[in-house]
Amino acid sequence: MEAIFAKSIDLTYVGSGPALNAYTRSNGQEIRLIAGAANGGSGLVVQSDQNLNAPSDFRGKKIATPQLGNTQDISCRAWLKAQGFKITQTGGDVTVLPTNNPDQLALLQSGGVDAVWTVEPWVTRLEREAKARVFLEDKDVITTWLVSSAKFLGSQRALAKKIVAANAELTDWIQKNPDEAQKLLIDELAAETKTTFAPDAVSPAWKRIKFTTAVPNELIAKAVQDGKDAGFLKGNTDTSKLIETP
């Protein structure tokens, strides 16, 4: 989002949390949502030997999230607030610790945190390698959008239209070729994270994710409310200018 503000990029795939934050920061002038990409695939994972069976059991506990203000971080904070907890950026009734996804495994295994709110394939990896269990699966959440700067959309609409069409074609291919798509994903994850992901670990993670170009209005409304509840969206949150089809 900062790169779009700085005019160094024109488009990006990004989570709903950072995109909405950027949209409201610019009073709806800078960011445009042009297509959906993926929903779901995230959730709250807990240590199997911890007595965490109800929301009230999280009082005084530590929960890791991928990054301050990212989509899972916002979902976690909004959920905790809905359970009646007072949450601040650095503490409160439950401590939320922004932690890079690759570091969450060791932190959970060592007892550095009691739970992790993260996204696939890390949810499945924590289940398999840390013997953790999924306390809550967050299915109704926008995981990734395709957004552009308003300037790019206005000045190069024909190109933006081609990119949206390519996104739709790719999404359709992923839906129809899950086995081949998973192989490509494993190779890319290995290149980016220097970590090996077994096919039988990627497969269950894949089933939790919904690849779609659609952006349901109810999920946008939920994302806005979560952002407000988590304290990241303040002031005017009118999203009437957010969605624009090239």
Can you lay out the helices and strands and say which pair or pack?
Layout: H1 2-5, E1 11-14, H2 16-25, E2 31-40, E3 42-46, E4 62-65, H3 71-82, E5 95-98, H4 101-110, E6 115-119, H5 122-129, E7 133-138, E8 142-149, H6 150-155, H7 157-176, H8 178-193, H9 199-208, E9 209-211, H10 217-229
Parallel strand pairs: 4-5, 4-6
Antiparallel strand pairs: 1-8, 2-8, 2-9, 3-6, 3-7
Helix pairs in contact: 2-10, 3-10, 4-5, 5-9, 8-9
Characterise this structure.
- This protein is an alpha+beta fold.
- Helices cover 44% and strands 20% of the residues.
- The chain is built from ten helices and nine strands.
- The protein has helices at 2-5, 16-25, 71-82, 101-110, 122-129, 150-155, 157-176, 178-193, 199-208, 217-229; strands spanning 11-14, 31-40, 42-46, 62-65, 95-98, 115-119, 133-138, 142-149, 209-211.
- The protein has a five-stranded mixed sheet, sandwiched between helices. The chain has a four-stranded antiparallel sheet with strand order 1-8-2-9.
- The radius of gyration is 18 Å and the shape is globular.
- The two termini are 20 Å apart.
- The model has no long low-confidence stretch (mean pLDDT 92).
Provide a quick synopsis of the model:
This protein has 246 residues and is of the alpha+beta class. The chain has helices at residues 2-5, 16-25, 71-82, 101-110, 122-129, 150-155, 157-176, 178-193, 199-208, 217-229, and strands at 11-14, 31-40, 42-46, 62-65, 95-98, 115-119, 133-138, 142-149, 209-211.
